[in-house]
Amino acid sequence: MADPEVQISGGKPPVEADVEMEGDEDGPEVTEIGSRGSAVGGAAAEEDDKPAPRLTFVDYLKSPMIELLIGSGDSQTLLMAHKALLTKSPFFMEQFSSSGNTRIELVDDDVDAISCFLEYLYTGEYFPHKLSNGSLESDPSVPKIDDNGAQLLKHAKVYTLAEKLGMP
Q: Sheet of 103-106: strands edge to edge?
């Protein structure tokens, strides 16, 4: 059986390269995809016909409050957040499914990073906001010249926390 040839029009000129496809001698396995992205036929196609109910912001606000105990010792801080918003994180979803706790202890996490995470959950972004010219909004609580790297460390902690919580 001859190898298929793929040509893409426009853009850069074609580059010749060998492409190896896995599969048996008859060719690779092909799964037909329906218009909604599920395999055609079967129960999955029937379930996709029902649209998921839309959650409004008030639905989030009506959900139970969860206590987040952040840090340890004298620097321990208690914050509250709505459960429905926290469940956007796979980490918190797992916490709620394994127990019915209304308090979650985050002793190794930074309160400023958690604050940024909660700001993102409630507003869809966190400070500093990206301005239209591509620069970041200035933080009045930090000197213009960040000579000790405090801002860089803050964003590194937020990024690390987002990885832990499974958030984008």
A: 77-82, 65-70, 103-106
Q: How are the residues of the chain apportioned to helix, strand and coil, as percentages rounded to the nearest 5?
A: 35, 15, 55
Do 117 and 167 form a contact (C-beta atoms < 8 A)? Answer: yes
Element at 44 (helix H, strand E):
helix 42-47
The end-to-end CA distance of the chain, in Å, is: 44
pTM here? 0.60
Decide: residue 122, CB within 10 A, 0-12 exposed, 13-18 middle, 19+ buried: middle
Q: Using one digit for the tens of pLDDT, what is the confidence trace for 123-132?
A: 888 777 777 8
Please report where in the chains the tokens 């896995």 appear, as a residue: 22
How many helices and strands (H and E) does the chain possess?
A: 6, 3
DSSP-derived secondary structure for 86-143? HTTSHHHHHHHHH---SEEEETTS-HHHHHHHHHHHHHS--SSPBPTTSPBPP-TTS-
Say how far apart CA 34 and CA 68 lie, in whole Å: 43
